Amino acid sequence: MNEHHPKKVLFTVHEPFQFACHPGLSCYNRCCHDISIFLTPYDVLRMRKGSGMSSGEFLERYTITFLADDGIPLVLLKVSEDAQKACPFVTSEGCAIYPNRPWSCRMYPVSPTSSEEVEFLIEEIPSCLGFGEEREQTVGEWKHHQNIDLYDSMNRAYREITQHHFFQMGNKLDAGRAKLIYTACYDLDSFRKFLFQSRFFEKYDVEADLIDKMENDDEELLSFSYRWVKFALFSEDTLRLKDRDMDKLLQSQAKTPS
Ligand code: SF4
Ligand code: SF4
């Protein structure tokens, strides 16, 4: 461990820090125990792909959901119930879903201090021996190495929902609307069924090539689910009805200050 390194330091994206994590360290896998990991919709999309399950099975087996004060669903990774509190995906060889591990596992030990990502906090935990390794990289290089770009862009789009001015004005979601967010954003298989087994595409004007893509492409489906949530919950102009007269009426109601 570097004795001269402070315990907590703020870095910009261009500043280097000293850290490396690899199976040769005696602490290997220690950080996959006693954890609290909140999962974003894109985390769940990737993790359930990595585990080969449907979204419903994955959520049931590996997550606990509760509602924040404003009604937004918070999805927490379920850990083992013994004192170890182990992640269900940790093995003696490492992470069983490594290519699909969640955002916070990729980012560790770097945490953005705000959604603008101007500064990042690095907290040197004594039990994590990676801080004693010689490798240096900037925060930007670390993020690039962890393939975080797609996660960042999908999570940014979800934040537009969770940090919407609807909530900043003190509004709360009722149970039905909380369920709408949860199903559309987290339980993608159910959301796909809802779209393809109802008359949704008869009612809403959705591009034909996008409909084709959404049948099999979860990323496209999740991006569409964000559009649907903004339309259904916040009356945003993110979808159009095929009935143009009704659409105009809805748009004008959405623009009328209440
Ligand atoms: S170096 Fe740190 S991050 Fe890597 S396995 Fe050890 S405790 Fe975990
Ligand atoms: S998902 Fe993988 S990297 Fe993250 S805590 Fe679990 S085992 Fe560790």
Largest β-sheet summary? 3 strands, antiparallel
Order of helices and strands: EEHHEEEEHEEEHHHHHHHHH
Q: Which structural class do you get from the secondary structure elements?
A: alpha+beta
Mean pLDDT: 92
* SS strand fraction: 5-15%
What is the number of independent domains?
A: 2
| Ligand species | iron/sulfur cluster
The strands making up the biggest β-sheet line up spatially as: 1-8-7
Q: What is the β-strand count?
A: 9
Total count of helical runs of at least 4 residues: 12
Low-pLDDT regions = none
**What Rg is obtained from the alpha carbons, in whole angstroms?**
21 Å
Looking at the structure, what is the overall shape?
elongated
Helical percentage: 40-55%
Distance between the termini: 59 Å
